[in-house]
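By convention, each integer encodes one residue's backbone shape. The lines below illustrate.
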Amino acid sequence: MRLSILTLLLSMVMLNVQAQLKVAHMSEVDYGVQTQTISLGDDVTLAYTDQGKGAETIIFIHGLASYIPAWKKNIEDLKSDYRCIAIDLPGYGKSSKGNYKVSMDFFADKIHEFCQKLGLKQVILAGHSMGGQIAISTALKYPEFVSKLILIAPAGFETFNKGERQWFRDAMTVDGVKLTTVEQIRVNYAYNFYNMPKDAEFMVDDRIAIRHASDFQDYCYHVTQGVQAMVDSPVFDFLPNVKQKTLCVFGENDNLIPNRYLNGGPTKKYAKMGAERMPNCDLKMINKAGHFVMFEKAEEVNMMIRSFLK
């Protein structure tokens, strides 16, 4: 009887917490740092944070369904020696969510345009997951603009045949993203880590809160478009053309790379397969770390980045 009452009380507390996790618009999500916006072509308004000073500027590009705060532990450390600019990609976070023709080229063009508007002639690109594939695509399209690459568990090292690419398109739908339950949201985020730290819980809370936002439907659409952009513009065959000095970091225990339904096997196999195709790539594997390795093992990753940039 006591157990049943306790269970009921805990359920009521959880429901109350979930009721409080609401925002009317995704721009209301608290990032913990000041954000700015800038207007670009194609009716794109890009949100970004700009912290630190230094001779070199790092542009941080988040992954699929992610946002600026995913880099908070890295920027907090690196901003003492580098200008650190993190962006919300078009369709995500506090950025605009229009009916854009989303592609790897589209993202590359917007990053290039954004930097031009800030007067940045050359930058270091740091990309996580989908952001890694975007960083590679940008380096290929604008080689003189990108001085170095920092790839964190990048998409693009794993290859898929025509049927597998179609599987991705069919599996990722707007309704599928929109109707993800609170329980599944928690499971999905836990799956991104080897051992999800407590200080990553804000990601789950923010994802729950935005379900009630007026622009959430558009965000869900852009998540599906991001998947299509990745599978429609593979970079694996073009990796030998990436001449920039590159640091590539993977968690040994990445549950997302490789895709467990289509390929499987150890992450290191695919990490090496991609990194070895790049002429100037230094691959680092971190044990007991998952897909969000830059957050889960921030201290190690930050040390690697500092050593690489020196």
Q: What stands out?
A: The chain has a mean pLDDT of 94. The beta strands are 36-40, 44-51, 57-61, 83-88, 123-128, 146-152, 245-251, 281-286.
